[in-house]
Amino acid sequence: MKLHWSPRSPFVRKVMVCALETGVAPRIECVRSPVAMDKPNPDLMRDNPLSKLPTLVLDDGLVLFDSSVICEYLDTLHDGNRLFPVAGRERFVALQQQAFADGLLDVLLLWRQERNKPEAQQRAQWLAGFAAKSAASLDALEALAPTLRLDAIQIGDIAIACVLAYYDFRLPDLQWREGRPELAAWHAQFAQRDSMRSTEPGDGE
What we know:
By secondary structure, this protein is of the alpha+beta class. Helices cover 51% and strands 6% of the residues. The chain is globular and about 50 Å long. InterPro entries: Glutathione-S-Trfase_C_sf, Glutathione_S-Trfase_N, GST_Omega/HSP26, Thioredoxin-like_sf.
């Protein structure tokens, strides 16, 4: 399998954490595929016309994207603990937690893009909206923290851990841990997993 990959993409990181947790990482060839909103990657677009990461190309030529689809596919390739519960309420809770974390990541990516503009070009209403969504989401995650796992982890746990790590990497000034002790304590332990430590963001885009 070929994975279009970047060391700083939080969505790629989620996929790689899943690959490591399931033991399928050795079967994946990671191909460095830089992307930018104003510079589509022609090599990536041959597999994914959206020019978005991550994109997984299977050995039979089937192309999978986005990260949620790729992670669920990887979860079918092993015999261990399932990251995606197979049925019932537990499955939909895990899927909802993943969707929540992924949606928050989308907010943070747009927020960072707006913050990086020259001050005269920044839109105050947009910045305020992003800030409100971030704070409300983090408070909701704090309430959820007692239910998050450190053993027999699921996709929701991985997705939430990755979005919190993205705060640390790209938006450390927001100090997401303040006033959220249970979430901070859970993340401190989850971040020590080998899958998280070996996927910390590196150089490049």
